[in-house]
Amino acid sequence: MSKRILVTGVGGAPGFDLARSLLRLGCKVLAADADPYAAGFLLPETTAHVLPPAMDPGYRASMLRLCANARPDAILSTVERELPRLIALRRPLADLGITTWLPERHAATACGDKARFAAVLTAHGVPTPRTVLPDQLDGAPHGLLVVKPRHGQGAKGVHVCRTREQARVLCELIPAPIVQEHITGREFTADCLIDRAGRASVILRYRLLVKGGLAVVSRTFNDPEVDECVRAALTATGVTGACCVQGFIRDDSPDRVLITEANARVGGGFPASVAAGADYIGQYLRGLFRQDVDHGQLTYKPDVTLTKYVETLTTSEGKTR
Questions:
Q1: CA angle 26, 27, 30 (to 5 degrees)
Q2: Which of 9, 52, 12 is nearest to 31 (CA)?
Q3: Domain boundary among 100, 120, 147
Q4: Chunked in runs of 10, what are the mean pLDDT values of the chain (321 residues)?
Q5: Residue 153 belongs to what domain range?
Q6: 114 domain residue, yes or no
Q7: Do 76 and 288 form a contact (C-beta atoms < 8 A)?
Q8: Which residues contact 133 (CB under 8 A, 6 or more apart)?
Q9: Is the dihedral of CA 34, 158, 171, 129 positive or negative?
Q10: Which distant-in-sequence residues (6+ apart) come within 8 Å of 52 by Cβ?
Q11: pTM for this predicted structure
């Protein structure tokens, strides 16, 4: 499928691996990021484009200018805070002939706002960690607590503390924080693809080694109860397209499966699902261009382990970018 795809967030693992996967499928990749040193800019046969951060006042004009000049066939975003901005640009992007596959605004909010996510899952009866806002700290659960940004990504700004008093201090330091009970157990991610008719495929993988929020060692597995819980979370949020859902398996708890978050983008460890036999990116492309998603191509083998590592893309002398 020879298409020109603009991939945003190529400085992070999801965007980098998505761009590389698209190249392998024969697509032309326009790589975009707010960081001029984004690793994805160094991928061969890509064209690099620096954009303002999603929250910058100049983002809208810069994105439309890039699209008008470069004329990609489609945009795939891997930056959660960018999704509301792109949703607002649906019409002008369509007028430029650019295809998008974006969640509805309520679904993007449910996935991008961790307080909203907890409320939505609780309302739908999907087990999730108890979550409070800073002004509700007196009602926080006892024991270890996690303080994190309400709109965070990549485990940035996440802190574990022992008391409510410590949590109060952290809430003064972390922008727009939430406070959750600390969960332990076997951590997992589900790489999901939900077609435009609402049918979902779910690929489960354990997060065996996590660094900076990224699963650097993953192993696929099957578990009907986890699969069912992930699907319930997808239904609750209403997300479509590519999505990753994270949670914990606690064999010593009445709620054996606990869902902690969902991201309306590909997950940073999705190459494990591809290695296990799922045509994850190929079917994502089909859905993007309004072709039927073949869910039969999204089956996978359990017990396939993938290890990510840091590689040197290039060296140079003198000034760069």
A1: 145
A2: 9
A3: 100
A4: 92 96 97 96 95 96 97 96 96 97 95 94 96 88 87 78 89 90 94 97 96 90 98 97 96 91 95 97 97 98 94 75 58
A5: 130-181
A6: no
A7: yes
A8: 115, 178, 179
A9: positive
A10: 34, 58, 59, 62
A11: 0.93
